């Protein structure tokens, strides 16, 4: 049973990844996210179902558009693969770590919420890395969904109202920290999008896992900046967007927050 669920989630993830490519592109460059057919960005030829099979189409077409033979960015199959693997891991986490493989409404809602959050984070990872933007059209609805899910948890007794209050406090603190960073640092690579992303992450990660999220976010961001300096891709004083690293921190906190904290506390003693 669980094997078939995980295989299903992997295939679902590949398909969602293909959709996330569209979301990431259109949320920055315009166009309706939910309707309209996909077109080649070069020749604008409408793509058919056969051109849109996750990963397989890219491989069969050897990375070229079927119509104009211009190169297709390797980003598209990479995002599809990442999404497939993330969905697969969410299935595993849901089954083993969260131990909620009882087909109740609560556990199914939890699974759907995890898949939703992972998709949002992946979409924002792409938009910030590729275009340096964290579009409101993604962050604001995601904050709405996360808030609704938390309210559902309170109404059905999975968390207390105090627990929700703490999560909200964490969210506002995160937003305040990033507002401060944007305001006082004058960093070109930081903006209002980071404040909203920080709020979203604070809300769904909550206390104390948010500490792991922040730590991993700043650590990976710092390491990546140093690497880019060393290989000469960036010069000192150039900016690197923080959003992609915040999403990596958020995913780590979501999947391994309690374990990483426990490891840290134990190694301190
Ligand atoms: Zn083309």
Molecular structure report:
The structure is a single chain. By secondary structure, this protein is mainly alpha-helical. The chain folds into 2 domains: 1-101, no CATH class; 134-269, no CATH class. The chain has 9 helices and no strands. Helix 4 runs antiparallel to helix 5 (136-155). The longest helix is centred in the first third of the chain and has 28 residues, at 2-29. It is globular. 34% of the residues are buried. It binds zinc ion. Zinc ion is lined by residues 40, 42-43, 45, 65, 67-68, 70. One of its GO terms (biological process) is signal peptide processing. Pfam families: A24_N_bact, Peptidase_A24. It is a multi-pass membrane protein. Belongs to the peptidase A24 family. It catalyses: Typically cleaves a -Gly-|-Phe- bond to release an N-terminal, basic peptide of 5-8 residues from type IV prepilin, and then N-methylates the new N-terminal amino group, the methyl donor being S-adenosyl-L-methionine.
């Amino acid at each position: 049973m669980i094997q078939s669920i995980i295989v299903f989630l992997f295939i679902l993830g590949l398909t969602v990844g293909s959709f996330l490519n569209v979301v990431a592109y259109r949320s920055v460059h315009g166009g309706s996210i939910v309707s309209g057919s996909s077109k080649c960005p070069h020749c604008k030829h409408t793509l058919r179902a056969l051109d849109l099979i996750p990963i397989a189409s890219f491989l069969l077409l050897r990375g070229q558009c079927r119509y104009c033979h211009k190169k297709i960015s390797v980003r598209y199959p990479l995002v599809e693969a990442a999404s497939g693997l993330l969905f697969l891991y969410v299935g595993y986490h849901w089954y083993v770590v969260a131990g909620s493989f009882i087909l109740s409404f609560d556990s199914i809602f939890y699974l759907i919420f995890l898949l939703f959050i992972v998709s949002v984070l992946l979409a924002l990872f792409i938009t910030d890395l590729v275009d340096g933007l964290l579009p409101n059209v993604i962050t604001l609805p995601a904050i709405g969904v996360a808030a609704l899910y938390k309210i559902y948890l309170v109404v059905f007794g999975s968390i207390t109202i105090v627990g929700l209050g703490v999560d909200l406090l964490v969210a506002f603190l995160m937003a305040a920290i990033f507002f401060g960073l944007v305001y006082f640092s004058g960093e070109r690579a930081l903006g209002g999008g980071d404040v909203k992303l920080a709020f979203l992450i604070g809300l769904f990660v909550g206390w104390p896992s948010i500490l792991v999220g922040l730590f991993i976010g700043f650590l990976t961001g710092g390491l990546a900046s140093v690497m880019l300096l060393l290989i000469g891709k960036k010069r000192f004083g150039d900016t690197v967007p923080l959003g992609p690293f915040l999403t990596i921190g958020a995913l780590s906190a979501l999947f391994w927050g309690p374990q990483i904290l426990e490891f840290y506390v134990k190694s301190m003693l």
